[in-house]
Structure formats: C-alpha cells, structure tokens
Amino acid sequence: MSEFELLHFQSVTFTGQSAGARLIVLGAVHGNETCGTQAIRRVIAEIESGQLGIVAGSVTFVPVTNPLAYVRHQRMGDRNLNRNLVPTATPVEFEDRIANWLCPLLAQHDALLDLHSFHTQGEPFIMLGPQDNDGTLEPFARAAEETALALSLGVHRFVDGWLDTYAAGVARRLAAGAPAREADVHYGVGTTEYMRAQGGIALTLECGQHDDPAAPEVAYRAIHNALAHLRLAAAPVPAPVTDAEALRLYRVVDRAHAGDAFARAWSSFDRVHAGEVIGTRHDGTQVVAESDSHVVFPNPKAQPEQEWFYLARSSARV
Fold first, then answer.
1. How far apart are CA 135 and CA 183, in angstroms?
2. Starting at the edge strand that comes first in sequence, how are the strands of the sheet with 245-255 ordered?
3. In terms of pTM, does the model score above 0.90?
4. Which of 122, 194, 207, 290 is the most exposed place for a label (fewest CB within 10 A)?
5. Domains in the chain and their CATH numbers?
C-alpha cells in the first residue's frame, strides 16, 4: 500500500440540545502548523470530561486536516491544501482526496475558524473576507457577522484583501507565462473562500510563529471565544476588542529564482518606507517598496514562481 492509503480523515462533532449555529474548527491544514491541533485536542478533552458543555448548535473539530503533511512534519503533502480547494471526480494529488472529504463537511456548517501559524516572528492576526459585494470574484453578504466574530477572538490585528490581491498576482503570472495552475485565480481559493462560497462566514487565525509556545494558547482562547460568541457554550459573550489595527493587502511579490534573497530577516508586519530595499533578485535587481507599507507573509524558503511576500497598507475596515 502507498503511504497515503494508510492515512485517514478524522472529525469530532458535539451537538447541543437546542438549535444554534454550526461551527467547524480546523487544525493543521498545513502539516507544520500544529498550534491549532494542540488547542483543538485540549478543547475536545474539556468537552469529553464535562469541563466544557456545548449547549446549543454544534461544533465540529478537525484536529489534523492534512494528515500526509502532518506525518511528514512539513507544510504540504503533494501540494498546498489551502489553494485550489474544490472537489474533483479525478483526484490525483493527496490534497485532492482531502478536498473530496473536506469540502462537503465545510458545506454542512455556518461558520469556520481555521487555525494557522506563520514562518517568521510576529504577532497573531486574523484574515478577514471581503466586504459585502455582488462582484464576480468573491461575492459576499455577511461581512458584519464575520467581522463581529473576528473581533471576539481576542486578537487585535486584522488583514483583508487576500483574494483580489492574489488575482492581481495571477494577472502578472499570466503575462509572464507562468504554469497554468499558478496563473489561475481559482488556485487562490482555500478553506475560507470555499466556505463563503457555500454561504457561510469564515476566518483564518494566524496564531503566531510556528514554534512560538504562545501560539497554541492564542488558538485555544479563540476557540473558547468563538463558542461563547456564537452561543454554543454557556459562557459569557466576549467583549469585542477595541484597539484593533486593520491592514489591507495590495500587492503580492513572487520569488522568481532560488537566488532571490531578502535584504534582511523580515517578520510579518514589519514596516518599510517608500524606496526601501526589501530584497534582491538573483541578477542583482533590487525589489523596493513603492510606498510606506507593511511586509506580510515573508517566506525566505518560497519556491520559484510562488508567493515570496505581500505588502499591506493601513485600512479603516474595523
């Protein structure tokens, strides 16, 4: 048998005695991001022991969403699960098999909390979806509900603009003759985008650096706060954060060559000034900030033709 044929998918659902929202919480969508897995297993143990009760609605936990990447202790199995997430009748990569199981499960719920971590040092933050719109890229009509849930999770930094910024990057990749998959805007669809397309609300919580011992605590607190905010647990509803910082992504820069290198070890949300050098291409060309910005998701290990870093500006969103 092949390696992936020995693996299985697991979800654990608890249902209260009264009607209510249906929440799903994901951990380890990327196999080396385990803070969510740790927090989810801790909360499951509390529910099973009677320390925490689910009094209404339901909550489904997926401790390890990508078991192949998880057992390999790496970000991906065959590919990035949080890209091109859609069921397929002809699964080829292991992540296709996950999608065929995960997408119908997501569609059974009203709200998603997807727990992640990131490469470099930095504070936790939440990725918000779009504002209400009837456009063709990511139409949405529940921004107020989604934002209210985000403000309840105990994190103070919020970022939006993901899919339209990714779409702009796709246009550049197309012009440069990139491989078809990376040059398809649908490749930017992950768990939250799929959930919104099914009518739900969805948040990605980046809990901190991969190995930060505080990251599992951020995830644990967020799960408890989400359960209370959605009235699934009999706990006081958390007050929304008041000192929020909002940023909007506006540009994605790809790594073109393995020799492309950052000017220094950037952390997410480091400030850069207009004209400041962020990195240097393998041919010596400097990559500079076009305006005062924040560096987001810097990935010094990005593969060629993949996202190297994003740039964000201040926003009045929250």
1. 20
2. 12-15, 56-62, 18-26, 111-118, 201-209, 125-127, 157-160, 245-255, 306-314, 293-296, 270-272
3. yes
4. 290
5. 3-243 (3.40.630.10), 251-314 (2.40.50.630)
